[in-house]
Design goal:
The chain is of the alpha+beta class. It has 12 helices and 18 strands. An 8-stranded mixed β-sheet has the order 1-11-12-13-16-10-9-4. It has a 3-stranded antiparallel β-sheet with strand order 5-7-6. A hairpin with a 6-residue loop joins β14 and β15.
Length: about 425
C-alpha cells in the first residue's frame, strides 16, 4: 500500500505508474475522496470542540441562556450525524482505491506493455546442440515411466498430473537440493501453512487483483496459497521488530495452487502451466533503506542463479518491464531457462523488490536504532526452484540418445548415488 501523503505530494507520478503498469485505478478520485474525508474530519473535530465548550458552560447558565446553549447543542447533532454518515459512505471507496494504487517502478525499469518487452540482461550456460532427435519431457517421462498425465487429468481435471518412480524422486531431489543450498547460505528453513486468511492475501498484495487465480475455501473463508511468499512474508505481520533482528532471511518449501483462470488453451501441453506444483521460495525482510533493498535484490537473484548453474541449466536473466510488473513490485528480474521442446527461454523464477509496499499493508515495522521511530520494513522474494516446471529443461537438456537421462551431479546424493535414469 502507498502512503497517501506521497500520492498527495506527487499525484502525477502515481497516475503515470498506473498507466505504465496497465492498472485501472482513478488516482484523482482517490485524492478527491481523501480531500473530502480530511474536511469531514476537521469539521467533526470543530463540532466536538464546540460541544465540549458549550457542555462545560451549561452548568453555569440559567434561564434563556441555558435554553439557548441546549438548542445550540441540539443543532450540532444533525450536522455531526450527517458528516459521520458521509464519511461512512466514502471510507470504503477510499480504502479500496488506496489498495489499488500501484507502486511506481524504479527509474531504471523499462517501460513496456507486456512480457514481450522485457529486456534481456545476460545469458548464462551453453544451449545444447543435439546429435540426435531429442524427445520432449512428456515423451521422456512416459518412456521412462516417470509421469502419468492422462490419469492425472482423469482424476482431477485439466492441468493435473502424476509423477511416479524416478519422476517423483527427481522432483523431490531438486527441491531438497534447493533447500540445502539456501540453508547453507544462511536462510532459515520454514514449513508454512498453505491456507491463508484474507488479511495475509491483502497484506502481501495478492488481494485485490489475484482473486480469480486463487482457490478459495468459501466455507472457511480461507485461501490456498499460490506461493510460500504469502505466509513467509506475512509471518510477523502486525509486529514491531527490533532493528537487530533484521534482516530476516527465510526459505520455505510448499505446495502451490493456481487456478490459471483465463489461460484456457495456453501452455496446456505437459508440465509447464499446471494447477498444483511445489516451490522453494526465498524471502528477505530488511531495513527501510533503498541501498539495502538493492543489495538483497542482487543477493536473491544470485542465489537462484547459483541453483541453476549447479544444475547445469542454461538460462537468461531479464529485467521485467512496467506492463509485466505487479501492483506492488518496484523492480523484478525473471530467470528464464532454455527449454528445447518450447524452442526458447521460458520463465522459471521471479525476483521481486517491493520497498515498503507489502510491509505497510501488513503493518510490519521495526524500531529504528538511531531515530527510535517505528519504520516500515522493506520486503523482497524470489523463487529458488519450482518443480515440476524445472523438470522440463532438466529432463530435456540431460537426455541421451539411448533414451536415458543423466542426473546432474549435485542431485545424485538425493537419487541414491545413481548417475542416470534408465528404462526399467
Amino acid at each position: 500500500m502507498i502512503d497517501i501523503r506521497q500520492i498527495r505530494e506527487n499525484p502525477d507520478l502515481y497516475v503515470q505508474a498506473a498507466q505504465n503498469k496497465r492498472i485501472g485505478v482513478d488516482i484523482q478520485r482517490l485524492l478527491d475522496i481523501d480531500g473530502r474525508l480530511k474536511d469531514i474530519k476537521a469539521r467533526l473535530q470543530d463540532i466536538a470542540t464546540e460541544k465540549n465548550r458549550v457542555g462545560k458552560s451549561i452548568p453555569k447558565l440559567s434561564g434563556a441562556e441555558r435554553e439557548a446553549a441546549l438548542a445550540s447543542l441540539a443543532a450540532l447533532k444533525p450536522q455531526e450525524e450527517q458528516l459521520q454518515e458521509e464519511a461512512k459512505v466514502l471510507q470504503p471507496e477510499y480504502d479500496a482505491l488506496l489498495l489499488e494504487a500501484p507502486q511506481p517502478g524504479d527509474p531504471d525499469v523499462p517501460v513496456g506493455k507486456d512480457d514481450t518487452e522485457n529486456v534481456e540482461v545476460r545469458r548464462e550456460g551453453e544451449v545444447r546442440q543435439f546429435g540426435f532427435e531429442p524427445k520432449d519431457h512428456v515423451q521422456l517421462g512416459l518412456a521412462l515411466d516417470m509421469m502419468d498425465i492422462e490419469r492425472g487429468v482423469r482424476l482431477a481435471g485439466t492441468r493435473n498430473y502424476f509423477l511416479k518412480g524416478d519422476g517423483a524422486m527427481l522432483h523431490w531431489a531438486v527441491l531438497r537440493f534447493a533447500i540445502d543450498f539456501m540453508a547453507q547460505r544462511g536462510y532459515t528453513p520454514m514449513v508454512v501453512p498453505l491456507l491463508m486468511r484474507d488479511e495475509a492475501m491483502r497484506g502481501t498484495g495478492y488481494y485485490p487483483g489475484a482473486e480469480e487465480q486463487t482457490y478459495r475455501m468459501e466455507r472457511d473463508e480461507l485461501n490456498l496459497v499460490g506461493t510460500a511468499e504469502v505466509p513467509v512474508t506475512a509471518y510477523r505481520m502486525g509486529e514491531i521488530l527490533q532493528q537487530e533482528e533484521l534482516p530476516l532471511k527465510s526459505v520455505a518449501l510448499s505446495s502451490c495452487f493456481r487456478r490459471e483462470a483465463g489461460a484456457a488453451g495456453k501452455d496446456t501441453y505437459g508440465l509447464y502451466r499446471i494447477h498444483q506444483f511445489d516451490k522453494v521460495e526465498q524471502v528477505v525482510v530488511c531495513r527501510n533503506d533503498v541501498q539495502e533493498s538493492n543489495k538483497f535484490h542482487a543477493e536473491i537473484l544470485a542465489n537462484s542463479e547459483g541453483v541453476m548453474k549447479a544444475l547445469g541449466l542454461p538460462y537468461r536473466v531479464v529485467v521485467v518491464c512496467t506492463g509485466d510488473l505487479g501492483r506492488g513490485q518496484a523492480k523484478k528480474y525473471d530467470i528464464e531457462a532454455w527449454m528445447p521442446s518450447r524452442k526458447g527461454y521460458c520463465e522459471t523464477h521471479s525476483a521481486s523488490k517491493f520497498h515498503e509496499f507489502q510491509a505497510r499493508r501488513m503493518n510490519l515495522r521495526y524500531k529504528d536504532a538511531e531515530t527510535k521511530k517505528n519504520l516500515y520494513c522493506h520486503t523482497l522474494n524470489n523463487t529458488v526452484i519450482a518443480s515440476p516446471r524445472v523438470l522440463i529443461p532438466l529432463m530435456e537438456m540431460c537426455q541421451n540418445a539411448d533414451g536415458s537421462i543423466t542426473i546432474p551431479e549435485v542431485l545424485r546424493p538425493y537419487m541414491g548415488g545413481r548417475d542416470k535414469i534408465v528404462s526399467r
